[in-house]
Amino acid sequence: MGGIVEAQASRWFVFTPWGFVAALIFFLSGVAEVNRTPFDMPEAESEIVAGFHTEYSGMKFALWYMAEFLEAFAISAFTVTLFLGGWQGPAIPLWWVLFGSVCLVATARTIPSVLRVLGVVACVGSGVVAYLANEAVPSWAWFLAKTYGLVFVLVWFRGTLPRLRVDQLMGLAWKFFLPLTLINIASAALWVAMPGPSGGVLAGALLILSGWWLIRLNNPAPLQPRTYLFVE
């Protein structure tokens, strides 16, 4: 794990074409493994018809619930370690983030002028503070901040997305995640064989075209108009 984190000192793996796809597949597969919404078919918490939500109470229910959140924390921690730099600070220049935030706020036409000015000042101030605090923030704080950020995403999923059916989850795993993972291995090999900008462009193009092809391949057929047969 230490070697994986040290390899991300100059650039987190999630900022590479193959790393972004791998991080997305790994995180979503982990969410499905720990039975979190929208992949909570075994428990079906919102229905409350079976499972530990109705069969246990008191301390037993608390232990089950705590174990679920520990699983969610573990998946988030593994994702941070493998793809988000682990316990290291931002691997990208902070002035890029600052410049992008200022441009985004300054050009937002739906925001009043006063709020735009305040937003630009807040972005500049937060960028300066982040630059000064980059070396002062301890490694455990970076790790916990990124991990709890992913835990927040899990809670966000739970309150936003509807539950998938079993056939939808199996189709997503076998027809999309698995072939895209195999293609991603070839993309990573291409990235290593051609370390220059051309390798990154080819790897990104391979993943984009493959993802588009898999979406088109698995797109359900349009519904046909219903026909009726009348008895004469």
Please supply descriptive tags for the structure shown above.
232 residues, 68% helix, globular
Write up what this structure looks like.
The longest helix has 28 residues. This protein folds into two domains: 170 residues, no CATH class; 46 residues. The radius of gyration is 23 Å and the shape is globular. 68% of the residues lie in helices and 0% in strands. By secondary structure, it is an all-alpha fold.
**Rg value:** 23 Å
In the predicted model, the low-confidence regions spanning at least 5 consecutive residues are none
The figure for the number of domains is 2
Overall 3D form:
globular
How many H/I helical runs?
Answer: 9
Using DSSP, what is the number of strands? 0
Largest sheet descriptor: none
Helix content percent band: 55-70%
Assess the beta-strand content as a share of residues.
under 5%
Q: How many angstroms separate the termini?
A: 75 Å
**What is the H-and-E element order?**
HHHHHHHHH
Structure summary:
Helix content is 68%, strand content 0%. By secondary structure, the chain is an all-alpha fold.
Write the layout of secondary structure elements.
Blueprint: H1 2-6, H2 17-33, H3 52-55, H4 58-83, H5 94-106, H6 113-133, H7 139-160, H8 166-193, H9 197-218
Helix pairs in contact: 2-4, 2-8, 4-7, 5-6, 8-9
